[in-house]
Specification:
Two copies of one chain form a homodimer. In chain A, helix 5 runs parallel beside helix 6, helix 6 packs across helix 8 and helix 10 runs antiparallel to helix 11. Chain A is globular. Helices cover 46% and strands 19% of the residues of chain A. Chain A folds into two domains: 170 residues, 3-Layer(aba) Sandwich (Rossmann fold); 183 residues, Dehydroquinate synthase-like, alpha domain. Chain A is built from 13 helices and eleven strands. At the A-B interface, helix 3, strand 7 and strand 8 of A face helix 3, strand 7 and strand 8 of B. Chains A, B: Its cofactor is NAD(+); Co(2+); Zn(2+).
């Protein structure tokens, strides 16, 4: 088992990574205020892992309720969130009870936002069961739901008390979702860890083959990068924004296609190619490093081109992005692999040209 | 003009109280990150004060949008909240823009919760226009919406950057709402300020006659009490819970009658009588002080009895209250006027008896 800590003073919390950590009741008990939890999961994950988690908790006298959401980004909205509130209120959950998110990024974001706002905040635990949520969304306390006009537009910062990343849950993950998770893994290499990027280049086949040792290493190095960034900048006033590499383009893809059509990781992959392309066009990222970036994303089986929405539509959707500051679009670009920076006031014509160059031919 | 400060480190903020402070653009400008605001108000307040505030802001080059909500507690729900999000997103509001709540407690709670969760948090300013919101809800950062199963069940702690309490707005306040606000004024005397309670007893006729000097004094002393409590305990882990005197009973009245039938302050008034009655029955509050409490609430024209829902129904509704901790109902009771304390595990039969004694005859 690997263990990391997100250092945030009296709100610091551990991340445990490894085979079978899902029902580490010692860690869960240490995180609870009272022996009562509500497990939020979805209808795909519930048949796989809910019974095991409930049995483990009940064996140590923790009372469990569960709320099962429909699966998918398309349900990351207020209506679905409200089913969590309904369950908590019907069960008379109070401020001392704990919410456990068991599932992927959508479950984690919604359960986290429910925990952030139920009675103005209750404790929660993340048990991510997808690669994407294990390497990214379960760590750092960002929670949200979507609005028809934009992804993750309604949300809160609310840190979990514990993250349990059980690598054995990845054996049941569909191939497409494994690859989507690898997009965020590659991201850490691109923004701040060139040695990790090299390691991924060397080990991408092992990762795609789901070798447990390789997956454990990738998750640990990803979470270590994420934990350090979150410790430095919890509420994204500075360095944390680098984690949005590819995300502004990616959000435009997700919103433009309708949430749930492209997986988040797929959209981020194409978005990172667009960001790298723009970085190259502006003379910051060398052609060689741009090619390495595109090649690794391609070898992972992720899209290296975005859907042909038209550059104007991309720019319109990007204007709704949360990274917009005082009306100025801010983008994370690359000076090199492992060296990202935030830029504002980039020429729209260059952004549009990069988008056009990285979209599917019509 | 009177000025107070809520001391919360780098999130400290001023409260300005006085005639005409509504359009103190110097204070507003100092609180903005960028010169762009969205004013959230309702259809009763908008015709009275929105134009004046917009004109003042535009005269100092602040761009204003506005979102006008339907008036009333019955609209304090997700659907109404979403109209704020719609307006912010349609106007391309970003994280640097500021939300201004112009209105009573419902507007402040909803605009505050929108500010807490829009893009995971944007700055906001409170301009309360009712006595209740000036003395209580605009200060301290509690924001929320209601759920059919409970009042203020979904919310967040999100401190404003400025509170402007313009006493001249109270001239347009309906009598019933003025009295509802006085319930919270009396509360401060009861929980921690016996000298203030004496002052209210002496000056209640001046307050009911809306003498500006008396209202200014009552608001300042109320806010000073509130500010000190919030500074000591921002997220209600301890002393802040004393502010809930009468509120657990009161929430049961509001929920039991349907939100909006009883005003919040009216329900709190009857709830404070119940709490005082229970305190007396348990031997903590003397008969003399109990009588003073009931007499002052009665002289204010506030209800000294609750609706006849039946004690069992009260207890059921109270079990949903946020003050419930680990399944134990906690109530704020009085040892004396000016000396409140939190009690758990009180005998249900005594609570029921106090409720029955303080309800309208059938």
């Amino acid at each position: 088992m690997r263990k990391l800590t997100v250092a945030l003073g009296d709100r610091s919390y551990p991340i445990l990574i490894g085979e079978g950590v899902l029902d580490r009741t010692d860690a869960i008990l240490a995180a609870l205020k009272t022996p009562r939890v509500a497990i939020v999961t979805n209808d795909v994950v519930a048949p796989l892992y809910l019974g095991r988690l409930e049995a483990a908790l009940r064996s140590v006298d923790v009372a469990c309720d569960s709320v099962i959401l429909p699966d998918g980004e398309a349900h990351k909205n207020w209506q679905t969130l409200n089913t969590i509130f309904d369950g908590l209120l019907a069960g008379h959950f109070d401020r001392s009870t704990t919410l456990i998110a068991l599932g992927g990024g959508v479950v984690g974001d919604m359960a986290g936002f429910a925990a952030a706002t139920y009675q103005r905040g209750i404790p929660f635990i993340q048990i991510p069961t997808t690669l994407l949520s294990q390497v990214d969304s379960s760590v750092g306390g960002k929670t949200a739901i979507n609005h028809p006009l934009g992804k993750n537009m309604i949300g809160a910062f609310h840190q979990p008390r514990l993250v349990l990343a059980d690598t054995s849950t990845l054996t049941t993950l569909p191939d497409r979702e494994l690859k989507a998770g690898l997009a965020e893994v590659i991201k850490y290499g691109l923004i701040r860890d060139p040695a990790f990027f090299d390691w991924i280049e060397t080990n991408i086949e092992r990762l795609l083959a789901r070798e447990p040792q390789a997956l454990g290493e990738a998750i640990e190095r990803s979470c270590a990068n994420k934990a350090r960034i979150v410790s430095e900048d919890e509420t994204e006033r500075g360095v944390r924004a680098l984690l949005n590499l590819g995300h502004t383009f990616g959000h435009a893809i997700e919103a433009g296609m309708g949430f749930g059509v492209w997986l988040h990781g797929e959209a981020v992959a194409a978005g990172m190619v667009m960001a790298a392309c723009l970085s190259n066009r502006l003379g910051w990222l060398s052609a060689r490093q741009y090619e390495r970036t595109v090649a690794l994303i391609g070898r992972t089986g992720l899209p290296v081109r975005g859907p042909k929405l038209g550059a104007a539509r991309y720019l319109e959707l990007m204007a709704h992005d949360k990274k917009v500051d005082a009306g100025r679009l801010r983008l994370v670009l690359l000076r090199d692999i492992g060296d990202a920076e935030i830029f504002a006031d980039l020429p729209a014509v260059e952004i549009a040209a990069a988008i056009d160059a990285c979209c599917e031919p019509s």
